[in-house]
Design goal:
By secondary structure, the chain is α/β, with parallel strands linked by helices. Helix content is 43%, strand content 12%. It starts with a helix and ends with a helix.
Length: 228
């Protein structure tokens, strides 16, 4: 399993090396800016939780991210299978206990990775409210007493329409909406969609990444947090 993650790292470095010299500087998470333990909350759906990841407890992306960040970081997995960002979705993250638990966790950093389940037809019929709901969620997170820095992920690619989840809605509707709102709010984005593009072998069920895909996702997020 370690070889799979190392393979993902090698692939990511090859992808990210192209054109990196012209990339603008990005916000960085610096341990020196904090005292004590730095808490990172990974908010998301089944992809964050680790469905489809072999040995999920050790290979889901939040755990791998924690290993990459180091001992000073406490990375919490707040992923819930089926969760939507849409308030009128079939499982709104807003209504889940994990949403309430974030305040008690007091994160200094939140990595938001929702949107995949919003592409289901029964959810996307409310797609006109997606941008507004995202604005509300970002405002809620940044106003938490711990005043966390927030990064928002562009969802990974969908390699086959399943359970209503589909690439057309993700790439043509959801990702542009996330980019627009993130720009308005001056919130940095993490392009998980690009990092895991052309990697169908990392998605055995065509929706959820395996351990190698989760490893690449962790590396992508780690790199963004470090401003590289």
């Amino acid at each position: 399993m370690k070889c799979l993650v190392l393979g993902a790292l090698a692939a990511f470095l090859l992808i990210s090396s192209a054109g990196c010299s012209s990339a603008p500087p990005r916000p960085a998470l610096r341990a020196a800016d904090y005292s004590g333990t730095i808490r990172v909350a990974c908010v998301g759906d089944s992809i964050t939780f680790g469905v489809g990841v072999e040995n999920r407890q050790t290979n889901c992306y939040p755990v791998v991210l924690g290993k990459l960040l180091g001992r000073r970081f406490d990375v919490g997995n707040f992923g819930v299978s089926g969760a939507t960002l849409l308030k009128k979705g079939d499982l709104p993250y807003w209504n889940l206990q994990q949403f309430e638990q974030l305040k008690d966790f007091a994160p200094q950093v939140i990595v938001l990775a929702l949107g995949t389940n919003d592409s289901k037809p029964q959810n996307w019929k409310y797609g006109g409210e997606f941008a507004g709901d995202l604005r509300d969620m970002l405002d809620h997170f940044t106003a938490l007493p711990s005043r966390p820095k927030v990064w928002v992920c562009l969802p990974p690619p969908v390699y086959e329409t399943r359970w209503g989840i589909n690439e057309e809605t993700v790439s043509l509707e959801i990702i542009p909406a996330i980019k627009q709102v993130a720009q308005e709010k001056n919130i940095p984005t993490i392009d998980v969609h690009r990092a895991l593009g052309d990697r169908p072998e990392y998605f055995p069920d065509r929706i959820h990444p395996n351990a190698a895909g989760a490893g690449m996702m962790a590396i992508t997020i780690f790199t963004a947090l470090k401003g590289r």
